[in-house]
Amino acid sequence: MYEKKIPENLDCGISIAIKVLGGKWKAWIIDKINIGVRRPSELHRDIYLASPRVVNMHLKELEDMGIIYKKTYHEIPLRVEYYLTALGESVLPVIAAMEKWGNEQREHFDQAVSL
Known about the structure:
Keywords: DNA-binding, Transcription, Transcription regulation. It contains 7 helices and 2 strands, in the order H-H-H-H-E-E-H-H-H.
């Protein structure tokens, strides 16, 4: 079994926030679920820059952390949807602040990337 060489520091709030939102697609996944994109196939389509495997991996991590939960409908064909937990909803203001900051800094980064 894999054992981390450096233990996680969960005494620091920033470390906890990075654990939840770290990774290229987690904040985007949480935001999409919040606006009603709930089925895995819809998430794969909307987050087209990420491979389905990566999206599925992040969904599993977010579920394990209690940020989202999976609801399975026993129909034919089987249907799965993801929803935010109360903990997941509590992170929405952080994601909104990240989006606001990113939008305000877009011109700077457009210029920096074009150099």
